[in-house]
Design a protein that fits this description.
The two termini are about 25 Å apart. With about 120 residues, the chain is mainly beta. It has one domain. It has a 5-stranded antiparallel beta sheet with strand order 3-2-1-4-5. It contains 2 helices and 5 strands; from the N terminus they run βββααββ.
Length: about 120
């Protein structure tokens, strides 16, 4: 299926990265980490670290699970993440009674530098 045929990609959500944007593992270099606020369904706001990647248009709103993984690899200071690489992958998780798509970070430092 082509990206233009995927109805999930027809919504106006161009700023943040979603599981459907990934076609398997992707290794990225963290460019910046900034505090942000995400507005979810029903207008509920939540604060999250927003991670930008070198050469990428979309950012990742980091949830607690991914924060703990990146923190275990590089420490818990945002400045310590800049310039470091992580591998993202699409998967699913339970959210209430539903199984939903999500992005996770591999719990290991990538072996080979990626451009």
């Amino acid at each position: 299926m082509s990206n233009t045929d995927d109805v999930r990609k027809m919504f106006d959500e161009k700023e943040y990265l979603f599981a459907m944007d990934l076609d398997g593992d992707i290794t990225v270099t963290i460019e910046s980490v900034k505090p942000g606020e995400i507005v979810g369904d029903g207008g509920k706001k939540s604060k999250k670290p927003i991670v930008s990647f070198v050469g990428a248009k979309k950012k990742l709103a980091v949830n607690r699970t991914n924060m703990k993984i990146i923190g275990s690899l590089y420490g818990y200071k945002a400045s310590g993440w800049v310039g470091k690489q992580v591998t993202l992958y699409p998967t699913t998780t339970k959210f209430g009674n539903d199984t939903v798509e999500c992005i996770r970070v591999r719990n290991s430092i990538p072996k080979e530098p990626q451009p």
